[in-house]
Amino acid sequence: MGSIVEIEGGAPSGVVCPFCRHHNAPGALCQHVRWTFEQGDPLSFARFVMHASPYLAGRGYRMSDIPPSWWDEHADWIVEQVLGIFDVGDGYVFGEVAHLDDLSRTIWKAFQPDRVRTLVRY
Q1: Is residue 10 pLDDT above 60, yes or no?
Q2: Nearest 5 degrees, angle CA 69-CA 74-CA 80?
Q3: What's the chain's Rg over C-alpha atoms?
């Protein structure tokens, strides 16, 4: 699996934010930049999101509960989720703060789906 840099053709010197139209360049990033590809590949970003989002801790889950083999087996799917939730391009990942929770929830529910609740009839 390649990095998003390889998929998108590399990171230029700057790019306009699709949310606020700020011109982003190294050292001058807007509030919507969540990741730059110099920081790592899409899986590194997803792991960062899982560590940073309060979704897991608020429910008593831990990032270490997800084994490395699961990440490897689902790497392509995880990249699809990143590309679907965030605005990705030109070496930057743009998104709102809520998108971080969306991604962490999506990944966690794929790893450990919610139990089906039984219907209680009266």
Answers
A1: no
A2: 150
A3: 16
pTM for the whole structure: 0.80
CA 68 centroid distance within chain = 17
Domain with 45 in it: 4-110
Q: Which amino acid, one-letter code, is at 66?
A: I
Quote the number of domains for the chain: 1
Q: Tell me, yes or no, whether 42 lies in a domain.
A: yes
What's the residue count for the chain? 122
Structure tokens belonging to residue 53? 């989002």
Taking residue 42's Cβ as centre, other Cβ atoms within 10 Å add up to 26
Structure tokens at 103: 């991604």
The answer to whether the CB of 16 falls within 8 A of the CB of 10 is no
Q: Is residue 122 part of a domain?
A: no
Measure the CA–CA gap between 8 and 55, rounded to whole angstroms. Answer: 30
Whether 120 contacts 63, CB under 8 Å: no
Instruction: Determine the Cα–Cα distance for residues 35 and 48; give it in Å rounded to an integer.
Output: 9
pLDDT tens-digit readout, 32-71: 999 999 999 999 999 999 998 888 888 888 899 999 999 9
